[in-house]
C-alpha cells in the first residue's frame, strides 16, 4: 500500500490517501453504497477539493502547520472494531523521504496511524488510521471487511496513555483515488473524528492496484 506526496514533511498538515496494494488479490465482496457522506463533510471546516498530480495520481495536500510537540500527542496503539472482527496493533507511520510513499506496516494484520496529524487527545481534526485490504503474499489484511461497517457501529481506539476511546461510525464512502477529497480526511481542523482508510473497488491486474479507496468516518461516542 503506497501513498505519494509533494512538499516537505515538516510542512505537512495533511497526508495522502492514494492507498494502493502493490501485490494484492481482489476483494471477495462488493461494497455497499455510500452512507453518511453529508455528515462526514460537515465535520470538516475545510472545503474539500479533489487533488491530483499532473500524472493523474493523487498528491498530498500540503499547508503550513506546526507538527505536534514531542510528548504532546497521544498516539493510538490498538484498534478494536468488533462488527468486522478487527483487533489490530497500530504503528505510527509517516512518509518515506526516499520514495515519497506512505509507510504502511509490512504486516497486513497491523494498521498505521499517520503521525504527522492529530493524536487521540486532539480536540479538533482527523485522526487517520490506514490499513491493508489484502496481500498476495499474506492474504486478508486488517481492513479487508472495512466496507461492511455501517452508521451506528462502534469501535475503540486505545492510546499510549492506556485510555480506551470509543467511536461511533457516521459515514462510509468510496472514492476513485483520483477524486478523493484528501484535505477533508487529513485535516487538523474541524470536529474531532477518526478516519479509517483502505483500498477498494475493482482490482487492476495490469497496474496491480485497486481503483478506489474506502473511507470510514467515526466520531467520539
End-to-end CA span: 30 Å
Please tally the β strands and state the result.
Answer: 12
Continuous helix count = 2
Low-confidence stretches: 1-29, 47-66
The assigned structural class equals mainly beta
Q: Taking all residues together, what is the mean pLDDT?
A: 78
Largest sheet strand order? 1-2-5-6-11-12-10-9
Strand content: 25-35%
Biggest sheet details: 8 strands, mixed, barrel
Protein name: Sortase
GO molecular function, one term: hydrolase activity
Pfam families: Sortase
Keywords: Hydrolase, Signal
List the helices and strands and how they pair.
Elements: H1 37-43, E1 76-81, E2 86-93, E3 95-96, E4 101-102, E5 111-114, E6 126-131, E7 134-135, E8 139-140, E9 154-159, E10 164-176, H2 182-185, E11 193-204, E12 209-220
Structure write-up:
This protein has 221 residues and is mainly beta. The chain contains 2 helices and 12 strands. Strands 1-2-5-6-11-12-10-9 form an 8-stranded mixed beta barrel. Strands 3-4 form a two-stranded antiparallel sheet. A two-stranded antiparallel ribbon has the order 7-8. The chain is globular and about 45 Å long. Residues 1-29 and 47-66 have low confidence and may be disordered. InterPro entries: Sortase, Sortase_dom-sf, Sortase_F.
Concise summary:
The chain is mainly β and 221 residues long.
What descriptive keywords fit this protein?
about 220 residues, mainly beta, eight-stranded mixed beta barrel, two-stranded antiparallel sheet, disordered N terminus, Sortase_dom-sf, hydrolase
